[in-house]
Amino acid sequence: MRGVVMNAPGDIEVVEREDPMIIEPTDAVVRITATCICGSDLWPYRGVEPVDHTPMGHEYVGVVEEIGDAVQTLKVGDFVVGSFCISDNTCPICRAGYQSRCVHGSFVAGTIGTQAEKARIPYADGTLVATPGQPDPELIPSLLAASDVLGTGWFAAVAAEVGPGKAVAVVGDGAVGLMGVLAAKQLGAEQIIAMSRHADRQALAREFGATDIVEVRGDAGVAAVRELTDGLGAHSVIEAVGTQEAMLQAIRSTRPGGYIGYVGVAHEGVALPADELFFSEVHLHGGPAPVRRFLPELIDLIWRREIDPGKVFDLSLPLEQAAEGYQAMDERRAIKTLLTVQETRESVS
Amino acid sequence: MRGVVMNAPGDIEVVEREDPMIIEPTDAVVRITATCICGSDLWPYRGVEPVDHTPMGHEYVGVVEEIGDAVQTLKVGDFVVGSFCISDNTCPICRAGYQSRCVHGSFVAGTIGTQAEKARIPYADGTLVATPGQPDPELIPSLLAASDVLGTGWFAAVAAEVGPGKAVAVVGDGAVGLMGVLAAKQLGAEQIIAMSRHADRQALAREFGATDIVEVRGDAGVAAVRELTDGLGAHSVIEAVGTQEAMLQAIRSTRPGGYIGYVGVAHEGVALPADELFFSEVHLHGGPAPVRRFLPELIDLIWRREIDPGKVFDLSLPLEQAAEGYQAMDERRAIKTLLTVQETRESVS
């Protein structure tokens, strides 16, 4: 089959990869309908994380092509949405809602590589969720968004205890930040302050439910959020960047006793000053989103057309043009790139 | 009046200080019955924090001697317990339960100095809570504990979401850690793992409700907690030290999705690695305890003799011997020192 590998930073190639097969009885092989490029894929692309001929991609929707003998909740032909974390969904950690840290868990990224025609998904029952039927084509982008960016933004909003009457600030206007805005709106936030310096992202944030836009960053950004919240800071802050600056901005924008949901992938060297955190008296929670916890609810909202997170994709390319998709995101010409998988390539594999 | 000042690190003196008076109409002057020395008082004593002829003490119980015209909930003669944070208890932050970050708030430490015969307490209605009547003398130590160490340990347990069925680990066997054990017991924890290397503190921890003692620290301590919790880590971890090592031990002892309540005062230079925190997927909350939130409940528990936190005081001295109290705690000869205020000194002031 055809699949994307990153040979080295900035070097994306679509190559022939071995067809995935059932190995464990709990596996499923999924024929990918659509996949996409994640903001986190840009870290190795920019040389910030190591990469060496790595199969890329961890977001995916598609059709179950084959299942192992132990798979019970899925059948061949089901249309499925998968999480970027493999989970058995039965261990104590999964049952507590943290499928992203399943005791049998692993990350799809870097190993399976779903920017490809097919993927072997371990613990299929615990990782994949079938849609109620075959989706209309216009639902595909939204279902694909549920696989990571929507699930991640939603987790951030839940971690930030967003709810009715709350003032919410969102640090980061990438796909996840924008999904955080959408989630905040759905969860009933009264005020949603999107921090963004890009007109196109501001427009999308407004469409998803932002009530205020703050263009300034750092101390000025913190001051602007405080001014919009009676001088107290936001009740809930969603952090969707992962840098030191963004984390500090989130901490300083939150009122004492408030909540930060942080999902920007923190990298080595980012450190939080414990004394500032201590006296800020905020709640801090985040990490890799347990998307599987939210998938049934998110699929239902999409299926009933109550939310349209697929709008976050502003570039759609065939899988074979993945390199252009990476470049467009790296140069910020695109917020997020959807890759359609060409059925016709099947005959090649 | 007589009062304790720390002239310089290690230099404690009881001196004549000016008698406090009503300044604002919301003030009360309290005649101190008992006060104590806090673990945090040892930071300047050891030269870790700056100190320069500073009036010491922020824990106190006593009798209202005078009130300002605007004070409504207290009358002269009331026996009161005060928090170490001044709070109006009416601002939006106080109403949300964070009286330690009241918009009109300030710390008692370093300014008022309750290791003295009297103290002026601003925002008396919002800071002090009257007991149901004049307490029996044997209740004084427990009521005094509520002023800080019990309230702080209790807050840590609440922040760590301690509750029925939970496995709780407590990092730190000082007075606050021991009060965390007591709080965890009261809040219904199933398993309470106290981390302590001192036999006397272990005994007290057992008395307060600890089910397990872990003597090792660092990686070995983390491994021991995991072994006691099905390899998963504790649901709830109380951090009551404030060092880098203790914070990392707390993070690593918590299961994914679990909660850390941290109340050890973090000092400059302590930094949390954001990447480790991210992938640990724990909830982190703490800071200066909003003791005022819990005071009515804690006073009630003490008054009904359901808890006996006063046992944490293992040394009692007259105010004039404060220097010996500091030394005993510094040398770990005492867990916590209670200072009784000599009524007879009144005539001197």
TrEMBL record, chains A, B:
Tree of life domain: Bacteria
Keywords: Metal-binding, Oxidoreductase, Zinc
Alcohol dehydrogenase-like N-terminal domain ranges (all copies): 25-124
InterPro entries associated with the record: ADH-like_C (IPR013149), ADH-like_N (IPR013154), ADH_Zn_CS (IPR002328), GroES-like_sf (IPR011032), NAD(P)-bd_dom_sf (IPR036291)
Alcohol dehydrogenase-like C-terminal domain mapped to chain residues: 175-301
Listed cofactors: Zn(2+)
A molecular function GO annotation: zinc ion binding
Family of the protein in this entry: Belongs to the zinc-containing alcohol dehydrogenase family.
Name listed for the protein in its UniProt record: IMP dehydrogenase
